[in-house]
Amino acid sequence: MRIGVPKEIKIQEYRVGLVPASVRELTAHGHEVWVEHGAGVGIGFADEDYAAAGARVATAAAVWAAAELVVKVKEPQAVEYGYLRAGLMLFTYLHLAPDPKQAEALIRSGCIAIAYETVTDAHGGLPLLAPMSAVAGRMAPQVGAYHLMEPMGGRGVLLAGVPGVPPGKVAVLGAGVVGSHAVRVAVGLGADVTALDKSLPRLDALDREWRGRVTTVAASGHAIEEAAMAADLVIGAVLLPGAAAPHLISRRLLKHMKPGAVIVDVAIDQGGCCETSRPTTHANPTYVVDGIVHYCVANMPGAVPRTSALALNNATLPFVLAIAEKGWQSALAEDEHLRAGLNVAEGKVTHPAVAEALGREYTNPGALL
Q1: Which domains occur in the chain, in start order?
Q2: Which residues are catalytic?
């Protein structure tokens, strides 16, 4: 199969769909890989590295035209919609629930769009979202601590505190992959950490891991409000696979939070868990509403692109190989977990949560396989 790897063009996005080691693996299996000039330069991989791994290095137009399967990191940008076509397989993060324009472009093109973020595993997890969730979760306390500094607009609190001064308070909304990693780093920074989740088993796991070092609270509207009002830093770490994130922090609540407190909304890819959240970039990561600093960068792992790209490739490569070896229909028919990643195919929306979020008719993917 011919596999294309375009250079990511989303603002300040330096990750790459396939690193040279992955290209070598694919070419060793007899597949042809086309990589756009400069696709990996942002993380230290030159065109020569890709050529040495067996790739053909070409222009963006040539890569998209040649490819039967395109492997990316971020969703196609508006200027790339013209490259989409019937029969083209696209394997990347899509996050369609808050992005009807992209969904419309995918539907009209007739392409096969498989989203990393809805591929599942036998344990109910999201294996292709997990590595980036881990990165974003570990980054969240770091960026929150930075923006808590007064020159950044924050309330001037050091999360670690110092002898004689208590540490800052961190509230983590959600105890899944993002939340558990955020807790780990927040504890490491010395913060006073509270984790909230509806899942008592998840809270039990955190309690056992941290042996009372982390306060665990069953999530309810009241509990979330209490935690947010007490916090210096709130980390939004909730996820409903394929669906829009629930708004857990209302505009009204902001006025009752500490002035200069920071919200890091990791759920922004799915619309955000704060009513006042809107996507930002690494170039302009924050804005202030009612005295509360909002950090809502939609591609947080893009700030550490080498680590992120390598971690992502570790997770995606087996699925890329399966699609390349078998074709999308056979690969998805044989693997129900990969089939869960199919969001749009041949003009139809094939994931129930995505269809509901977009107000579109749902088509069972089994009907297309």
Answers
A1: 2-119+305-368 (3.40.50.720), 130-303 (3.40.50.720)
A2: 95, 269
For residue 299, pLDDT over 90 is answered with no
Rounded to whole angstroms, the Cα distance separating 301 from 133 reads 8
pLDDT score at 248: 95
| Rounded mean pLDDT, 90-110 | 96
Say what the pTM is: 0.86
Q: What is the radius of gyration, based on Cα positions, of the chain?
A: 21
